[in-house]
């Protein structure tokens, strides 16, 4: 009998992304016109139809073209990307998922990535790796050699300078779809989306969705002068159909007056609001007062979510629900089920399975399980994540206490010989040390060999938070170059010898690409004409001829963008 093969991490991601598309595509209501607009764009049939009036026909249906940036049809070169925008909870993900399904049903090639589909979906390196695997499987004769040891920076550059131009020569239609791109972990990085070309040539087109309130990502996307489709609120008929079908799944039904009250609520125009409102009415125990409950539903989605969550916490018999919600909010990529059982239990005894089942049942509309080998629990929607996080941050003592609890938990795992301290655990440990204010312990961990397999994004993002904020410039008199002595340079860094590593994050600096590291007036050390201080060991070393005791320290591109002192201010 043939044994079942265990799926790799990448294969699990493909499976979970596919399941997510199937589930989300079934939640689309009243978006026929928007879906047709996106399919027209994917087919290459998008044409902006201008009227003599102030508003063209396309703008009446929420479609804006590159002409909004001053481009005429003769100025346009290549296929501008399609940007799908709209407020949080309006149904962008369901629309994008239906587009992917329709496009695949037509037999065309498509690469899709939904950032909120899995806890790991926020990693841009995963997106690039998945895209590489898709090309190798679907277009093996593309003529591009891929290497497994490529860094994320090399992957991004390869995508922009090699892959996109090669794909432009393919005659087959290809669609690239990325949903909620503003949820990527590199959103705050200076090179966020720099790999995305302004236009795509040939039969290649790209659809990206983003919240309109996410200013950093929206600014970078607007620089590429895209088509823009604004997803409008649901119409009354679509709201009625959505609510009716949702309740019918549970053999529930509202009378005509109650349905009218629900649909007329301004919040009902958002599918996220409507789904939670229907679930609240479904579990509402007093049939005689359902009408009154509908009338008192808040019309702002954040207020509705907060009201429902407060009720769940108030009625929780396990006394664990609130803690579980806050643990998820404080986590980076969700809480694995194995860890949740231990964190919700006593010091050595996990929470009882009966209690755990009740917590999951009560939170089924708020949280979801990743479905991968880690079984991570995250929130169903980023709007819920933001709402709970705001509640937690409003209690500074509680916020720090949750992170301190998680930091201690991962610290115990790091020294337990019976547990394997995984790379993802180390990422979380680093994050919680920073958030709980334990900077000294954080720096000790980052300098240890145990931290060598922390993701480069996590390392860079953490170190930027604890780095000296004084700006330094070569022409500025108070600053001076940073040096590394030959003894420190010979030690193994994060990926190579320190002589070829960034002085801040330890990441590999390709030859000829590094920027000079400098220290500010506050961190300048004693130096003489023939002696300088090493920025690593902080010992005075003699300046000798070429190949001597010290060398200039360098920074990688991400660490050099801020132009600040390279020393860490613990």
From the structure above, extract its key features:
six-stranded mixed beta sheet; 22 helices; alpha/beta; 570 residues; three-stranded antiparallel beta sheet
Describe this structure in words.
The protein is of the alpha/beta class and 570 residues long. It has 22 helices and 19 strands. Strands 1-8-3-7-5-4 form a 6-stranded mixed beta sheet, with helices on both faces. The protein has a 3-stranded antiparallel beta sheet with strand order 9-11-10. The longest helix is centred in the C-terminal third of the chain and has 20 residues. It is globular. About 4% of the residues have low confidence.
Condensed summary:
It contains 22 helices and 19 strands. With 570 residues, it is an alpha/beta fold.
């Amino acid at each position: 009998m043939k044994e079942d093969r265990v799926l790799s991490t990448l294969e699990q991601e493909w499976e979970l992304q596919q399941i997510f598309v199937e589930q989300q595509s079934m939640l689309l209501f009243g978006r026929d016109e928007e879906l047709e607009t996106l399919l027209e764009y994917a087919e290459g049939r998008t044409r902006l139809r201008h009227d003599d009036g102030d508003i063209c026909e396309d703008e009446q249906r929420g479609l804006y073209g590159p002409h909004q940036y001053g481009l005429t049809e003769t100025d346009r070169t290549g296929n501008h990307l399609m940007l799908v925008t709209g407020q949080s909870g309006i149904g962008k993900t369901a629309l994008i998922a239906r587009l992917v399904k329709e496009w695949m049903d037509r037999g065309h090639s498509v690469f899709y990535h939904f950032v909120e589909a899995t806890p790991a979906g926020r990693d841009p390196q995963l997106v690039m790796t998945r895209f590489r695997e898709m090309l190798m499987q679907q277009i093996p004769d593309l003529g591009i050699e891929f290497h497994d040891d490529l860094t994320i920076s090399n992957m991004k550059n390869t995508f922009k300078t090699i892959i996109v131009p090669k794909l432009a020569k393919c005659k087959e239609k290809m669609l690239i779809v990325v949903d909620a791109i503003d949820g990527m972990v590199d959103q705050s990085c200076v090179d966020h989306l720099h790999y995305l070309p302004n236009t795509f040539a040939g039969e290649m087109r790209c659809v990206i969705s983003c919240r309109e309130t996410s200013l950093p990502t929206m600014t970078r996307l607007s620089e590429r002068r895209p088509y823009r489709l604004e997803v409008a609120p649901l119409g009354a008929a679509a709201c009625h159909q959505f609510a009716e079908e949702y309740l019918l799944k549970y053999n529930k039904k509202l009378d005509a007056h109650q349905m009218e009250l629900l649909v007329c609520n301004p919040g009902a125009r958002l599918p996220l609001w409507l789904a939670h409102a229907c679930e609240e009415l479904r579990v509402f125990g007093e049939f005689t007062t359902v009408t009154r409950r509908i009338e008192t539903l808040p019309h702002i989605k954040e207020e509705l979510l907060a009201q429902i969550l407060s009720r769940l916490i108030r009625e929780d018999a396990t006394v664990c629900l609130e803690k579980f919600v806050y643990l998820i909010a404080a986590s980076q990529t969700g809480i694995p089920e194995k860890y949740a059982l231990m964190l919700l239990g006593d010091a050595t005894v996990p929470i009882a399975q009966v209690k755990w089942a009740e917590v999951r049942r009560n939170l089924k509309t708020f949280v979801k399980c990743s479905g991968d080998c880690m079984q991570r629990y995250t929130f169903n929607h980023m709007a819920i994540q933001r709402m709970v996080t705001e509640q937690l941050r409003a209690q500074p003592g509680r916020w720090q206490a949750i992170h301190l609890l998680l930091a201690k938990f991962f610290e115990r795992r790091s020294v337990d010989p019976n547990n394997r301290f995984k790379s993802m655990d180390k990422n979380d440990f680093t994050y919680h040390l920073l958030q709980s204010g334990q900077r000294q312990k954080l720096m000790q961990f980052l300098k240890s060999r145990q931290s060598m397999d922390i993701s480069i994004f996590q390392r860079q993002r953490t170190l930027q938070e604890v780095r000296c904020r004084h700006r330094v410039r070569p022409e500025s008199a108070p600053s001076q170059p940073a040096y590394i002595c030959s003894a420190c340079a010979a030690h193994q860094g994060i990926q190579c010898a320190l002589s070829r590593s960034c002085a801040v994050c330890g990441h590999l600096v390709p030859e000829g690409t590094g920027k000079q590291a400098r220290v500010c007036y506050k961190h300048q050390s004693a130096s003489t004409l023939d002696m300088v201080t090493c920025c690593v060991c902080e010992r005075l070393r003699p300046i000798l001829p070429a190949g001597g005791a010290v060398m200039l320290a360098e920074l990688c591109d991400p660490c050099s963008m801020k132009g600040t002192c390279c020393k860490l201010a613990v």
